[in-house]
Amino acid sequence: MAEAPKDIEALIEIMARLPGLGPRSARRAVLHLIKKRGQLMRPLAETMTRVAETARECLNCGNIGTADLCPICADDRRANGQICVVEDVADLWAMERGQAFAGRYHVLGGTLSALDDISPEDLRIPRLIDRVTGETVTEVVLALNATVDGQTTAHYIADALTGMGVAVTSLAQGVPIGGELDYLDDGTISAALRARKPV
Amino acid sequence: MAEAPKDIEALIEIMARLPGLGPRSARRAVLHLIKKRGQLMRPLAETMTRVAETARECLNCGNIGTADLCPICADDRRANGQICVVEDVADLWAMERGQAFAGRYHVLGGTLSALDDISPEDLRIPRLIDRVTGETVTEVVLALNATVDGQTTAHYIADALTGMGVAVTSLAQGVPIGGELDYLDDGTISAALRARKPV
């Protein structure tokens, strides 16, 4: 590596810090980029510079956009009284891909965690309570991950919202569409059985 | 995804074209970058812009550098008469990490392949023959991958160099350092047995 130019070494070192990439895959990616300087590396560098300048968090919900309000918070048609609480922007995008939710979002920015010393104030939980108080909210849908921390956070939020006159719901748990029972974990199967519905 | 700003969507789309990344990991990487705009995304964009401007292939050997001659070709101490032939710059870097080779390199830029219609002229094979004719070369070390295409290319080069007064050698094949026999494929074991040495 001593023979790779300094900038290229620096580039590999930064790329290796991206999630999902390590030193070896960063090296491969950088070589690929250098080979395709014109078609790939220049557009990537330009787009990245632009995004680094313009991307910002929505002051209302924490989604990523280019203005004080993200496109969803700025869209009046999404003001249907529903707020979907997600951990992360990636989860918001996943919900949007599902095209089943027509309300607005609230991105917590993580989950409560005693181990990592993350308290409600470190997340956007106070802001959520402000929104429920201030906006006309009828339902808060908790779309948190089905992990221990996710569910702890869901319970905490549900507790915090009791008595505020909003319905608090959470995503159904059960067999995924296209899922094969044989490949499902025991927890999912028993949750699906407990939540069974008449056909 | 319709709700992610256009530039961010474009960034994800370009990142997903890097080797080792797909749409999902590109999305994760981009969100991570946006979260760490200051520490990670801006330096990455700047370094990438710089590398896109300066990186170029060495006119002599095909290595990546920032001048007409790469640091190795520009270094007179490396003119020991040995040329190590590798498929790719990544392989050159791997050889350099091994710190066992003190000569210069020749990067082919791929392997011969009848399937992909890659002929000697598509690689830097003519240039290698020029170098062997022009420079004072005593040995050509073939460090090509132990794949079918790699070995075909090695044979082709060895044939092309016969009668030119250079020794043509190739990397030894055998048990990797730290390798466990039980996990090695049959081909490696039989190659190592055939090449066995007195202790």
From TrEMBL, chains A, B:
Query: Does the record's keyword annotation contain NAD?
Result: no
Which is one GO molecular function term here? DNA binding
InterPro entries, per database record: DNA_Rcmb_RecR, Rcmb_RecR, Rcmb_RecR_Znf, TOPRIM_dom, TOPRIM_RecR
Which keywords appear in this protein's UniProt record, sorted alphabetically?
DNA damage, DNA recombination, DNA repair, Metal-binding, Zinc, Zinc-finger
Extract the SUPFAM superfamilies matched here: Recombination protein RecR
What ranges of residues constitute the C4-type zinc fingers? 58-73
- Please report the stretch or stretches of sequence annotated as the Toprim domain: 81-176
Task: Please name the GO terms of the biological process aspect recorded for this protein, alphabetically.
Answer: DNA recombination; DNA repair
Enumerate the CDD domains for this protein. TOPRIM_recR
- The UniProt record lists the keyword DNA damage: yes
Functionally, this protein is described as follows: May play a role in DNA repair. It seems to be involved in an RecBC-independent recombinational process of DNA repair. It may act with RecF and RecO.
Classification via NCBIfam families:
recR
- Which PANTHER family is this protein grouped with? RECOMBINATION PROTEIN RECR
Similarity comment: family membership? Belongs to the RecR family.
Provide the protein name: Recombination protein RecR
Q: Which organism is it from?
A: Roseicyclus mahoneyensis
